[in-house]
Structures are given as structure tokens and as C-alpha cells.
Prior knowledge:
Layout: H1 4-9, H2 11-18, H3 26-66, H4 69-106, E1 125-130, H5 143-149, E2 153-154, H6 155-161, E3 168-169, H7 172-190, E4 194-196, E5 201-203, H8 204-209, E6 222-223, E7 228-230, H9 235-240, E8 246-247, E9 252-261, E10 280-290, H10 295-312, E11 317-321, E12 333-341, E13 346-357, H11 359-364, E14 367-369, E15 375-377, E16 379-387, H12 388-398, E17 405-406, H13 412-415, E18 419-420
Parallel strand pairs: 4-9, 8-14
Antiparallel strand pairs: 1-11, 2-3, 5-7, 6-7, 9-10, 10-16, 11-12, 12-13, 13-16, 14-15, 17-18
Helix pairs in contact: 3-4, 5-12
The chain binds one RNA strand through helix 3 and helix 4.
Amino acid sequence: MLHLNDIRNNKEKYIELLKIRGVDFSDIILSVIEKDDERKEIQKELDQILALANQNSKKIGDFFKKGMITEANELKKKSIDLKNKSKQLQNNKNQVEENIKDMLTQVPNVPHESVPIGSSENDNVIISKGGEIPNLNKNCIPHWDLVEKYNLIDFELGNKITGSGFPVYKGKGAVLQRALVSYFLNKNVAAGYTEYLPPFMVNETSAFGTGQLPDKEGQMYSVPDDNLYLIPTAEVPVTNFFRDQIISDFPVKCTAYSPCFRREAGSYGKNVRGLNRLHQFEKVEIVQIEHPDKSFDTLNNMVQHVESILIELSLPYRILKLCGKDLGFTSSLTYDFEVYSAAQKKWLEVSSVSNFCSYQANRLKLRFRDENGNTSLCHTLNGSALALPRVYATIIENNQSENEIRIPKVLHPYTGFDVIR
RNA sequence: GGUGAGGUGGCCGAGUGGCUUAAGGCGCACGCUUGGAAAGCGUGUAAACGGGAAACUGUUUCGGGGGUUCGAAUCCCUUCCUCACCGCCA
């Protein structure tokens, strides 16, 4: 959620920048400010009444102590009047505040000025490319066939015990998965991130804190008996660590491995084939909490960090700056990382690194103390480093030959083998 | 799952309806003291939303929500959470 004072102070600028998303939010911005003026008026009046009522209560206490019963009773009557008035005002205020909140939740984050205008994903801008697309021979096969051929993943077994989208990794296939997790975590720790292993379920408050609730409720698995939700990403528990906090040392850098659970309601067809889209997948996440002045530099650092991992894995990749249309609701600037899956012959998203500025921090009440000693909202950033399934799929597809799959060198210490036959 | 005890400021902890403007302590900051430090002494020490150029000031907040009352940390209802013991258990 945007902060009201920020909207007030940057009204024109925000309206202009929001147009990058291809939607005009000026009406809603202006009426939010109008409603807020109304709120202030009501509060002023309410505060005065409550102040008077508080004074009266004290006087009544004094009167009773002095035995001045008549005076006390008279004042009591006045206080009852005040009370009725304040109740009404309180109701008005609540209503107006709810109104404001409703409007605010409809406004997405303000795009960074560098975000390109666009009408579809085709307008995302490729800012960097690397790696070699391998020349596979024409007998090459996609990963869903490879995992069967080499006995690495059993989708049918997952179907049997849970349902589609819940693969079972086995043998070297499971080791490879574990190797990737360890490798990613080590890379992130070496880059200064502190490793966490968070709970894989969160309570309702946390789901609200990072914005999964109320709007994305249908995307999460829930455990209604215990009022818990299975996390769709480690971002949810990790970012919520810092809910309601006043941070004193920047930057806060966290990394966490977790399985991610997503209902993916509405997905279908070849996009969900094999490892491309799952209900449970594994991911290593990086999260940073940063001073507003530095957050965009930090975003660049995070992009470089993720890029370095893809380079070490020798995967063909490209980095896209998302255009206004494709930019997530809560993000101000996002870079997507895609790797080229040589057997499927398409680009697969493996990471998305975003600066949310103060949009998440506002809801989380995540603040720091500025040079004047006032509290101010932090900026939050996160990204995947990396999501496993598509990296996994691309590694085995791109490194396949007739009778074997070669494992990228950087993973050998983690797998203990360099080839799958 | 059963029983019991709790949830108060950055932390510990007192507080059974108005003398609470939340005692006292710890921590932290600043000052005095010192050659320098420690100790000691003194002062200050939450957040949100308002008013004000500022000094300052109003309201709200004692886990959350609701209620009783002129007045609630304190009484009532409800809900969440934590801890202890028992049961079960990797």
C-alpha cells in the first residue's frame, strides 16, 4: 500500500508515473486525498470532544471525593451527551478510514521512472544476455522425457500419493536437486546474506503482511483447522520476520530455502508440462531491507548476484526489465531472469528481482529512524536465487547428449558425480 | 488432546475502578564529575494520527475485538497467542 503522506507530497509525480502502467489513477488519487481531508476534519472534532470528556471525568472524580454529589451528577449528564456525540463521530471516522483503505488497496506501486511503457510482455526490454545456446542434435528430448529415461523424477508416483504438480525426485535426480539448493545457499551466504530456514506455514497476519491476503487468497493452500497457510514463497515468512520493527542497521540481507506451494488455479496445457509449473516447487530466496536512498543500487547488486550464478552454471540467459504492463502490482521495478531451454526451445523464467520501495514496508510497518530521529519506511527488495525446477529442467536438457547428461562443473562438489547415465 | 498459569514500554517487572501523568529496575542517549575511563550523580528515553512556523500540544494504544461505567491496565464477554505439567509422539 502506498503511504498517504507520500501520495500527498508527490501527487503530480505519482499520477504521471502510474501512467506507465497503462492505467490512469488520477481520479482515485485525488479522491483519496479529498477523503483524507475529510478524515482530518472529523478527527479534529472528535479529539476535542474526547479531550473535554477526559477533563470532565477527572472533575467528577474530584467532586465525589469532596462530597459534591449534585455537581458530580450534573457533569455526568454532560458526559453522557459527549459520549453519544463521540460515538457517532467515531463511526464516521471508521467509515471514512475504511473508504480510504479500500481506495488505497486499488492503487498499485508507483513504477520507477526508468520502467518502459508497454502493452504486453513483448515490450519488456532485454538489458543483458549471456551464455551459449547449445547445439543439441535432433534426437534431443525435453526434460519430462529425460527424467524418465534416466530415472530422475517420477511424476506418476507424485500423482498417486498427492496429485499432479507434486513430483517425486529420486536417486541422482534427488541428489541434483539437493545439490542445487546447497550451491545456491552457499553462493548467497558468501555474498553476505544470512541463511534462514523458516516455517513453511504462516498465520493470517503474515499472509496479510506481504499482501497474499486478501487478494491472492485463491493462490495459496490453506489449513483451515489451524488457520494457517502454506507459503507460496519464502519471501512471506522472511519478510514478516521484520514486521512491526524499527531497523537500526542497513542493509538487512537474508536468504532462505523453502518449498513453495501454489494452487495455480486456472493453469493448463503445455505450460504446465513437466517441471514448468508445479504445485510444490523449491526455491532459494534472497531478501533485503534497505535505506530508501540506496535501494535501487541494491537492486542492481542483486541483479548482478543472480547473474553471476547463471554464469557459473553456464546457462544461456537473458535479463529483462519489465514494462509497465507486466510489472507486478506491488513492485516499482522488476528484472526477470530467463534461461533458454534448448529442447523445449523457449525461454523460462527462473528469477524475478524486484524493488518494492516502501509499498510492502507500509503494510508491514517496517521502519527506520532517519537523521532527524523520525521514523520512516524502509525499502524492501527480493528475488529468487534461484527457483529450482526450471533451472533443473534447463540444466538436464542443455547438457544432454546421446547417452548421458553432464553436470555443470560448479555443482560437482555438491553432487559427488559429474555425469548421469 | 487434558489441566493450570500468564500476555503491561527496547527488556525485566509493580499495578483489583479516579492520588497512574503506568511505580521501580535494567538498557540506551546526553550532561556533570575525571588526566582518561569505570563508578557515582543529574536529565531524557514508545508508536500512530491530528493542531502549530516552532516551542509545544490534543487523541488513541497495557495481546486483539466487544461490553459495563461519567471514568477501565484493573470488572464482564469473546478471541488469539505464550509458558508449565500430564497424555501421545519423530
